[in-house]
Amino acid sequence: xxxxxxxxxxxxxxxxxxxxxxxxxxxxxxxxxxxxxxxxxxxxxxxxxxxxxxxxxxxxxxxxxxxxxxxxxxxxxxxxxxxxxxxxxxxxxxxxxxxxxxxxxxxxxxxxxxxxxxxxxxxxxxxxxxxxxxxxxxxxxxxxxxxxxxxxxxxxxxxxxxxxxxxxxxxxxxxxxxxxxxxxxxxxxxxxxxxxxxxxxxxxxxxxxxxxxxxxxxxxxxxxxxxxxxxxxxxxxxx
Length: 239
Hints:
This protein is of the alpha/beta class. It has helices at 13-26, 46-52, 65-74, 94-103, 120-128, 147-152, 164-174, 191-196, 198-213, 218-228; strands at residues 3-9, 33-39, 56-59, 80-83, 88-89, 108-115, 143-146, 179-188.
């Protein structure tokens, strides 16, 4: 298995310099893996930090996680893609977990989720990600997928600025691909929850999810996000 780790990034200087060394030290088969940072126009040194840490950095055609992840996949050399957020840290030996799952017949899947915060609400939210239910599948959990399956399902929907990670899992489910949830957890940053308050932010995310399932367009979802979610990112990009 040759693994391509694809990280969409925008102004992630505070985390990318820790993430890439973590990935390198966590990989069992580093010689068979590559780390690609798909940058959406960072101005805070993210690209330079990532390159100095040993990642391959590409400047994407335009901003947006779906676009950036597709661009990264298009320039990768692996036969398995692993899409990872810049503030999410997979467990040591995560590539072995992925390889073992593929050997057992899986085509794609995700890890469970754990936050770098012990707030009870976040612990409960993370606990629910062990269940193989689409409602609990989001990009913070990361996604591994065979190149063939990714191409056959059309990749990420570039028309989506929000819910692109949830949408691709639903599309994968409609195919013949075997999706699994692994036993170990990715540890992701709770920075947005700390900024907004765990209960308030989880409520807002639930509202956005309900609107999504009700058929609301991206303009409505983006308006909800930008109006109510306080974020460290620049306001021109949700997420």
